[in-house]
Design a protein that fits this description.
Elements (H helix, E strand, L loop, with lengths): L3 E5 L8 H8 L4 E5 L14 E4 L11 H15 L4 E4 L1 H9 L4 E16 L12 E12 L6 E5 L7 E4 L2 E4 L7 H10 L1 H6 L8 H5 L2 H25 L10
Parallel strand pairs: 1-2, 1-3, 3-4, 4-9
Antiparallel strand pairs: 5-6, 5-7, 7-8, 8-9
């Protein structure tokens, strides 16, 4: 099969556990540095497209954001399954015709989120899951999409649109990446305010256990998304660049 293309934007926000999962399933992947204008030449050369988080807002003006959005729109048009994490989910929402706006308050840290009945199959039948968050914006649910998750301090935490999945959370983080993210963005703890902002100490509390639970959830979600690649008929392998 063609490689899965993973679009990374920040050094501290890599594919993490997703890479481990894909490797365990024998699925090839290629990581592109999208914020450096490093993108696949065409979505048609990818069996799937993953878009990771970013410190930028999708409403910012750098050219790479518009170029990435065009690539996601091409993937949707060509039935290449897209998986968006946080910023990536916001880009996917925009590609599907929805708006991205400022949330009422920042979401930083771990939060318990409710799984909608329509999405229980993605989460092994669970009704609630604890996920990791770091975002200031929120997306609308795109036309024709189904809400999959909602939270107390951010209503739209996830959606599904055919084979495409967008989540306003991070399934891919590891112990190392959470610690690196906290270190890199320590100034935000002093600046961000609101009921959904945790301290660094709270974020790091019981981190091994929390990330282990998160990865159990991720295996179910990633497995369902991977099934969509097969269902869409991934082509024989070729270079993605």
């Amino acid at each position: 099969m063609n490689p899965v293309a993973i679009l990374q934007h920040e050094a501290s926000q890599g594919p993490g556990y997703l890479t481990d999962f894909l490797q365990s399933r024998g699925v090839p992947c290629v990581v592109f540095q999208a914020a450096r204008a490093d993108l696949p030449t065409s979505a048609r050369h990818c069996s799937g497209l993953v878009v990771l988080g970013s410190n930028a807002s999708v409403n910012d003006s750098p050219a790479w954001i518009a170029d990435e959005l065009a690539l996601i729109r091409q993937a949707v048009a060509d039935d290449v399954p897209v998986l968006g994490h946080c910023f990536g989910a916001q880009q996917l929402a925009r590609a599907l015709g929805a708006r991205v706006t400022r949330n009422a308050w920042p979401n930083i840290g771990w939060s318990r989120q409710a799984v909608t009945p329509a999405a229980r199959h993605l989460f092994s039948g669970e009704t609630h899951v604890e996920l990791f968050n770091w975002h200031y914006d929120t997306f609308e649910i795109p036309p024709g999409a189904t809400r999959t998750l909602f939270g107390l301090h951010c209503l739209n935490k996830g959606f599904a649109h055919g084979p495409h999945l967008g989540f306003q959370s991070h399934f891919e983080v590891t112990e190392h990446s959470v610690r690196a993210w906290c270190h890199e963005s320590r100034h935000e703890f002093a600046e961000a305010r609101g009921p959904a902002v945790q301290s660094e100490a709270e974020i790091l509390r019981s981190l091994p256990e929390r990330t282990a639970r998160l990865h159990r959830v991720a295996r179910g979600v990633y497995g369902q998304w991977l099934n969509s690649l097969t269902a869409m008929g991934a082509a024989p392998a070729q270079a993605a660049r």
